[in-house]
Amino acid sequence: QLLESGGGLVQAGGSLRLSCAASGRTFSASPMGWFRQAPGKEREFVAAISWSGGDTHYADSVKGRFTISRDNAKNTMYLQIDSLKPEDTAVYYCAAAPTSRSAAYRYTEHALYKYWGQGTQVTVSS
């Protein structure tokens, strides 16, 4: 129901735009988020966005470089990644929580999300 795309191999300092397209149901009333998992590490929170897109929250490690957004009319969420670093290398997952109007900062824990995509690989070379 959630499908990520846009990953790839990029040099340090480059940019990527990840997309998360929903199908089979709408998530326009749900907070959504991005997580990532590097080899040998636990899945970590990257960014979250409220149901309307009006509120966002970021992990400190990506603040100022990553931008989360959504287009509810297209049932799609995005993650613009700029100034990529080798430590950004990971599989990036999008996720949707149950319907809620809560603020984005409340959605940093993966256990709060009900729906997950399969992930898209982002590899940053130095």
Q: In summary, what is this structure?
A:
The protein is mostly beta strands and 126 residues long.
Structural write-up:
- With 126 residues, this protein is mainly β.
- 0% of the residues lie in helices and 45% in strands.
- It contains no helices and eleven strands.
- It has strands at 2-5, 8-11, 16-22, 32-37, 44-49, 56-58, 66-71, 76-81, 90-96, 115-116, 120-125.
- The strands form two sheets. Strands 2, 4, 5, 6, 9, 10 and 11 form a seven-stranded mixed sheet that branches. Strands 1-3-8-7 form a four-stranded antiparallel sheet, with no helix packed on it.
- Strand 4 and strand 5 (44-49) form a beta hairpin.
- 35% of the residues are buried.
Distance between the termini: 34 Å
Average per-residue pLDDT, rounded, comes to: 96
Classify the secondary structure makeup into a structural class. Answer: mainly beta
- Strand fraction band? over 45%
Gross morphology: globular
Characterize the biggest β-sheet: 7 strands, mixed
How many E strands?
11
Model regions low in confidence, pLDDT < 50 over at least 5 residues: none
User: What is the element string, with H for helices and E for strands?
Assistant: EEEEEEEEEEE
Helix content: under 10%
Give the radius of gyration.
13 Å
Count of alpha and pi helical runs: 0
